[in-house]
């Protein structure tokens, strides 16, 4: 007799006359019907299922957490709008950020804990089986589905427990408020953002200087393929709280290419460069991140935040990414000493495109 090399404990398919679900264990055929269905374990009642006082306490905890979330949202907005900031005192900035963060944390954490506690202690607690149907059910099945939704509403107590429901709705309405306040603060509330972004430090005759040293740049300092981070002359002399705002609008990237590689749509724009040297705003037109990467071989400028790409050969037009318009160009020329200077300010507002614009 040939030896069974697979061993007596190996499982192999049964012969064709046996059910496909049967298996051969050694020489014995075992049917799945031989194993009894263990069923669900005995249901354990929670304290809230047997004690009405505990159930009421759990309900109070849930809506109290929802209202605590509202307190956190309001506190974050209050800290952002009314906490005194001293531009020369970094501790006040740190405390302001701390209070805003604590408020937002309290808001989100309270909602999360309330939702978990609601599901564990307040909603109905029983096991059920939900049969799935691979195709559209009959009208009777669809009507039963509507009944199931109504049963779920009854079990959760969403309609019946008005304090919990109203607390949830109010907390969900309140928790986005800190974000709205923070985003609204991106621009001054007493000025036109479009006009504010259109005017920068750049003006006719102002020298281009290196960032951050402030040293003026000569055209001869740039070789083909080189790129400089540029700020206006005099920026470093501004007070600290004004310097950052001015730089956020006036930062420029300066690149030298071969003049024949630049494609212009008009003779006027061709005069905005000098011997292949071009200057463009460093502020991405998507959401204002700094465009900090230059690909020397492709002549592309890249924004690292959301991967927008701009083509230096073709007036910095967008060739990839979410940015909606080209980078604004700074017209440049040279002064009598050979230093690069601005011929005038930017040709259009700098920065993000989500503000209303007239051009």
From TrEMBL:
Asked if the keyword Iron belongs to this entry, the reply reads yes
The UniProt record lists the Rieske domain at 230-341
Q: Which Gene3D superfamilies match?
A: Rieske [2Fe-2S] iron-sulphur domain
The subcellular localization recorded is:
Cell membrane
One GO molecular function term? 2 iron, 2 sulfur cluster binding
Q: Which Pfam families match?
A: QcrA_N, Rieske
* GO CC list: plasma membrane
According to its UniProt record, which cofactors does this protein need?
[2Fe-2S] cluster
| InterPro entries to which the protein is assigned, alphabetical | QcrA_N, Rieske_2Fe-2S, Rieske_2Fe-2S_sf, Rieske_Fe-S_prot, Rieske_Fe-S_prot_C
Q: Which residues cross the membrane?
A: 61-85, 97-118, 168-187
Tell me what topology the record assigns in the membrane.
Answer: Multi-pass membrane protein
Q: Which UniProt keywords apply?
A: 2Fe-2S, Cell membrane, Disulfide bond, Electron transport, Iron, Iron-sulfur, Membrane, Metal-binding, Oxidoreductase, Respiratory chain, Transmembrane, Transmembrane helix, Transport
Keyword Oxidoreductase in annotation: yes
| Role, per record | Iron-sulfur subunit of the cytochrome bc1 complex, an essential component of the respiratory electron transport chain required for ATP synthesis. The bc1 complex catalyzes the oxidation of menaquinol and the reduction of cytochrome c in the respiratory chain. The bc1 complex operates through a Q-cycle mechanism that couples electron transfer to generation of the proton gradient that drives ATP synthesis.
Family, similarity comment: Belongs to the Rieske iron-sulfur protein family.
Q: What is this protein's name?
A: Cytochrome bc1 complex Rieske iron-sulfur subunit
